[in-house]
Specification:
Helices cover 32% and strands 23% of the residues. The chain has 6 helices and 11 strands. The chain has a single domain, classed as Class I glutamine amidotransferase (GATase) domain (Rossmann fold). By secondary structure, the protein is of the alpha/beta class. Strands 2-1-3-4-11-10-9-6-7 form a 9-stranded mixed beta sheet, covered by helices on one side. The longest helix is centred in the N-terminal third of the chain and has 33 residues.
């Protein structure tokens, strides 16, 4: 005669157990989502001719982070950078900040961050300018010259299967850039993702280097890293190919799945 009572008790407890289980699953899922989000630090050039690019990047990143629930913090020099500081982030974005202004402490911490794969790195444009420090991830090249008058050029993707190039049409046009040249092609030391066709320069110019990679990654390091040469002016954020590559690079370099794909 006690079985009906036990049955009734089970029927009473079942909904509560179901609700508890669902809440636990939601809590675990939320914790996993939080743990798997992008936490980026952006080293931003704070003045000069590249500031408009940095300002446009901040606006673009602000919208992207809201849509995908991730964080971006900004610094304008390297004084804070050490091991403990970098440990808070799974992505380092170098928004045109040049290599020659880094402190020795920051350099050492950043090299460890890259060599040990503690986070990813995206570098733009000015990140290769004049410094010796940039060589280890840049392919051991040194800045030589640039097209001060700016020209248009056509960029061809060389590795369409790389995640940073996902859904990017090739070739694509860049309407206005300086197209840095280097003392040698970085190709032997890096994996080229895209290159500019110097024959498409408009108007024509004699400032060329032949084999001319403009987007690459250095697979010799544990960190997912990508250098994107284009990055002089704010107009690039009106270029669909450029913003798609930037977006793809954020999620690839940080090793985080994009929560809201375009």
């Amino acid at each position: 005669m006690f079985f009906p009572l036990r049955s009734a008790r089970v029927r009473t407890l079942a909904p509560a157990l179901l609700v508890f289980t669902v809440l636990v699953m939601i809590d675990v899922s939320s914790a996993q989502d939080k743990a798997a989000s992008v936490h980026a630090i952006a080293l931003a050039e704070h003045g000069g001719i590249h500031k408009p690019f940095v300002d446009a990047a901040k606006l673009w990143l602000s919208k992207l982070q809201k849509d995908n629930n991730f964080t971006v913090e900004y610094i304008e020099d390297t004084t804070k950078i050490d091991d403990a500081f970098l440990a808070k982030y799974n992505l380092f974005i170098q928004l045109n900040y040049p290599p020659y202004n880094w402190t020795d402490k920051a350099q050492a911490a950043f090299i460890k961050y890259i060599e040990e794969g503690r986070g990813g790195w995206i570098g733009f444009h000015h990140a290769t300018l004049l410094g010796e420090f940039d060589g280890f991830q840049m392919g051991n090249v040194r800045f030589k010259n640039y097209i001060a008058s700016f020209v248009a050029g056509t960029v061809t993707i060389e590795d369409a299967k790389h995640p940073a190039m996902k859904n990017v049409q090739s070739p694509f046009a860049i309407e206005k850039e300086e197209w840095y040249t280097y003392d040698t092609s970085p190709r032997p030391n890096i994996h080229v993702l895209a290159s500019v066709d110097e024959k498409t320069y408009t108007p024509p110019t004699d400032i060329k280097m032949g084999d001319h990679p403009v987007i690459w990654t250095n697979e010799r390091y544990k960190a997912r890293n990508i250098y994107i040469f284009m990055g002089h002016g704010p107009w690039l954020f009106e270029n669909q190919a450029f913003t798609k590559i930037f977006r793809n690079s954020i999620f690839w370099a940080s090793a985080v799945k994009e929560s809201r794909e375009e």
